[in-house]
């Protein structure tokens, strides 16, 4: 009976996820606000149904009341996020809020399933949910800061100084883990500064390019950006270094509209990639694993090989929750969450997850295009690229499209620093969206008051 329930539930979960994903893109075709609201409410219903079905299936499999406790806590938190954003900021982008909640839900479902076999059962899930609460609590303040603190565009070198100093402290004093210096341990919590500095980095580049795109200023901006990347390379945090580098290159091109910078950047990337291959042993190992993980299956290739087995075993519809063996993949909840989801929830669910991430990226770019100030436009674009590149690196590494970079899948993988920084990133985007709505409302008011006068003059 238990197996039947789990098998039926996996198809229901896929249908709910597919319906939600379809609504993410159908909303762009809605012409009236009432139609959009109906679609958004439908998304909320689908989201909570997916939570209920997934956790009921897991409880059926394990008969552990702690699963129901986590489900209740998650449902309350997600409901609180949706209500608070809509009550505090009526003009918020509800699609972005819903997508954020759906990705958090997908991650919590799989983290709960994986944490049952950990040293502290369900401890990872509880900790992840705690980070969601902290991140949302802080994230609710960020849109106010974006709207009120108009002087943020003038803090050019404060962003660079604070961000560079934080990365330098990690490079000098952090302990080496997995061949890289990434984080500090503060009791039970591990802090990874590069996750937060990437937001400051985007603000620095946006502020600097807003001032001037003349050659001299571009050279100075490039030098400071290169210093950030170089410190990350010294720390051997090459995944973060790649994100910083590509984001800067895209922001520079958008600001200058000069293809020469792209060409120079691509050339620098090729040179840096070759140098990293010869300078860092763990880079050579990852490249060899990427080329043929099965040739070193008993050693360094075991993780990637198991991830590929998991994706293949899942097929289109997955094996069902607790019916696969994703825990065979080392560090699965951090580096290979995509493979774990593919095994037990299926490739269709994974494709829907990718499309939801793409929907977020489209919204971010749409907001960037409609901002009137260059600073805000560059910030929105930079954060959009940061998010998209991180998603690509994680999923591409799990599927062996590219070598593994050790980057987490935003909102889905476990990790406190990643969760907090991504929540802040989405809150900044929400602040920019509200700012744009304020500008639209102001413009409409001006038109309203000017029209009668124009008629009288006529």
pLDDT < 50 runs, ≥5 residues:
445-458
Strand order of the largest sheet: 1-2
Secondary-structure-derived class: mainly alpha
Shape: globular
* Proportion of strand residues: under 5%
Radius of gyration: 23 Å
Question: Can you count the beta strands?
Answer: 4
Distance between the termini: 79 Å
Mean pLDDT, to the nearest integer, reads: 86
Topology:
Layout: H1 2-26, H2 33-62, H3 65-88, H4 94-115, H5 123-139, H6 142-148, H7 156-173, E1 176-177, E2 180-181, E3 184-186, E4 189-191, H8 193-211, H9 215-234, H10 238-256, H11 259-279, H12 281-291, H13 302-314, H14 337-345, H15 347-370, H16 374-398, H17 416-457
Antiparallel strand pairs: 1-2, 3-4
Helix pairs in contact: 1-2, 1-15, 2-3, 2-4, 3-4, 3-5, 4-5, 4-15, 5-17, 6-17, 7-8, 7-9, 8-9, 8-10, 8-16, 8-17, 9-10, 10-11, 10-16, 11-12, 13-14, 14-15, 15-16, 15-17, 16-17
């Amino acid at each position: 009976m238990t197996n039947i329930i789990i098998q039926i539930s996996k198809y229901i979960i896929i249908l709910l996820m597919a319906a939600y994903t379809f609504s993410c893109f159908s909303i762009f075709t809605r012409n009236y606000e009432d139609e959009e609201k109906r679609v958004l409410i439908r998304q909320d219903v689908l989201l909570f149904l997916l939570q209920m079905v997934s956790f009921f299936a897991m409880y059926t499999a394990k008969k552990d009341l702690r699963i129901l406790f986590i489900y209740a806590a998650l449902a309350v938190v997600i409901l609180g996020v949706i209500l608070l954003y809509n009550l505090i900021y009526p003009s918020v982008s509800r699609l972005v809020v819903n997508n954020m909640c759906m990705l958090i839900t997908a991650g919590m479902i799989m983290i709960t399933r994986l944490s049952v076999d950990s040293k502290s059962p369900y401890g990872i899930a509880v900790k992840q949910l705690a980070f969601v609460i902290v991140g949302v609590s802080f994230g609710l303040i960020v849109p106010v800061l974006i709207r009120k603190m108009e002087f943020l565009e003038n803090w050019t070198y404060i962003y660079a100084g604070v961000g560079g100093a934080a990365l330098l402290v990690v490079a000098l004093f952090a302990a080496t883990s997995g061949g890289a210096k990434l984080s500090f341990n503060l009791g039970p919590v591990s802090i990874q500064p590069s996750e937060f500095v990437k937001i400051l980095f985007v603000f620095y580049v946006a502020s600097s390019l807003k001032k001037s795109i003349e050659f001299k200023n571009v050279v100075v901006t490039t030098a400071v950006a290169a210093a950030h990347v170089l410190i990350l390379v010294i720390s051997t945090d090459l995944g973060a270094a790649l994100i910083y580098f590509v984001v800067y290159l895209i922001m520079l091109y958008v600001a200058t509209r000069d293809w020469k910078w792209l060409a120079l950047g691509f050339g620098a990337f090729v040179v840096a990639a070759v140098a990293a291959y010869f300078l860092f042993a763990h880079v050579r190992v990852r490249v060899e694993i990427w080329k043929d993980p099965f040739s070193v299956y008993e050693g360094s290739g075991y993780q990637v090989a198991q991830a590929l087995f998991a994706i293949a075993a899942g097929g289109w519809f997955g094996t069902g929750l607790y019916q696969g063996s994703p825990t065979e993949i080392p560090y699965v909840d951090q580096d290979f969450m995509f493979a774990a989801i593919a095994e037990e929830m299926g490739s269709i669910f994974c494709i829907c997850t990718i499309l939801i991430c793409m929907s977020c990226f489209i919204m971010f770019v749409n907001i960037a295009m409609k901002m009137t100030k260059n600073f805000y436009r560059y910030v929105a674009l930079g954060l959009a690229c940061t998010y998209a590149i991180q998603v690509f690196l994680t999923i591409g590494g799990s599927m062996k499209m590219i070598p593994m970079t050790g980057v987490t899948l935003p909102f889905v993988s476990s990790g406190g620093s990643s969760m907090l920084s991504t929540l802040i990133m989405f809150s900044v985007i929400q602040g920019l969206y509200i700012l744009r709505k304020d500008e639209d409302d102001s413009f409409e008011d001006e038109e309203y008051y000017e029209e009668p006068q124009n008629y009288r003059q006529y």
